[in-house]
Write a structure and sequence with these properties.
- The protein is mainly alpha-helical.
- Helix content is 82%, strand content 0%.
- Helix 1 packs parallel to helix 8 and helix 7 runs antiparallel to helix 8.
């Protein structure tokens, strides 16, 4: 007497089919089925993500260094009894330190104004106006440097989801076209292309969310530093224009 192997039921066949369909929804399968549109979208998102993370890390390091050195530079300048010694200490600061550059521009403006008077040139601007103009230019320059990468972060945060959505739309369109041509609308035929298309949306969101969060964080951090720029510049103006610092209450 021989035992007969039971024929596979429809449920078992459907389960195997679904399992095979799920295996085709991974990232590796997505890359192997890219067309030229998919490659353009994917490379664009990868470049966006790389650039945004570069500026996130660079801005985080730069802002941390600026905020960490701010009190040392400012207090060191006002605490030094000799203006010339204070200026030499400012010149020894790192190249990217903004507070020292603002103070050095003010000191340079005073020196230039004094030299012009010694040479007998007509005085078109008072010392106060000359220092004020130099400080405004220095604050604007350092503020612009501190905002480096902000435009890119805002662009990635706002556009990356739509770039990913473009890849999703084109992927689903390609899937539907393939189904129409083959006449096969099974789970295996549908799940793979649709899953691959949705991965593009996930990649777009993965690039946009960190960029958007970083933009908001650095925007707030920069506003605090800009306020300190203005405060320091006003004190420098009073010091170099009148010879004494006006102490805030």
């Amino acid at each position: 007497m021989f035992l007969q192997t039971p024929a596979p039921t429809d449920a078992a066949m459907g389960g195997n089919s679904n399992a095979e369909a799920m295996k085709q929804m991974g990232f590796a399968n997505l890359v192997t089925h890219f067309n030229w549109v998919g490659w353009v979208v994917f490379i664009t998102l990868v470049v966006m993500s790389f650039l945004s993370w570069y500026f996130i890390i660079a801005n985080a390091i730069r802002n941390s260094m600026v905020r960490g050195r701010a009190d040392k530079v400012i207090n060191g300048f006002w605490g030094n009894p000799s203006t010339q010694d204070a200026i030499r200490e400012l010149e020894a600061q790192p190249k990217g330190e903004p507070f020292s550059k603002i103070a050095l521009d003010a000191a340079s403006a005073v020196a230039h104004h004094q030299q012009a008077n010694k040479g007998g040139l007509a005085e078109s601007l008072t010392r106060s106006e000359f220092v004020d103009r130099a400080l405004r230019q220095a604050v604007a320059r350092e503020s612009l440097r501190l905002e480096g990468g902000q435009t890119l972060l805002a662009t990635v945060g706002s556009s990356a989801p739509f770039v990913g959505l473009l890849g999703t739309v084109m992927g689903i369109y390609g899937a539907l076209t393939g189904i129409a041509q083959s006449g096969n609308a099974s789970m295996t035929a549908v799940a793979g292309p649709v899953g691959e298309a949705l991965i593009m949306t996930a990649i777009g969101l993965g690039a946009a969310i960190p960029a958007l969060l970083a933009f908001n964080f650095f925007n707030r951090s920069n506003r605090v530093i800009f306020a300190r720029f203005d405060e320091f510049a006003h004190d420098l103006h009073d010091f170099f224009a009148t010879g004494a610092r006006v102490e805030s209450k």
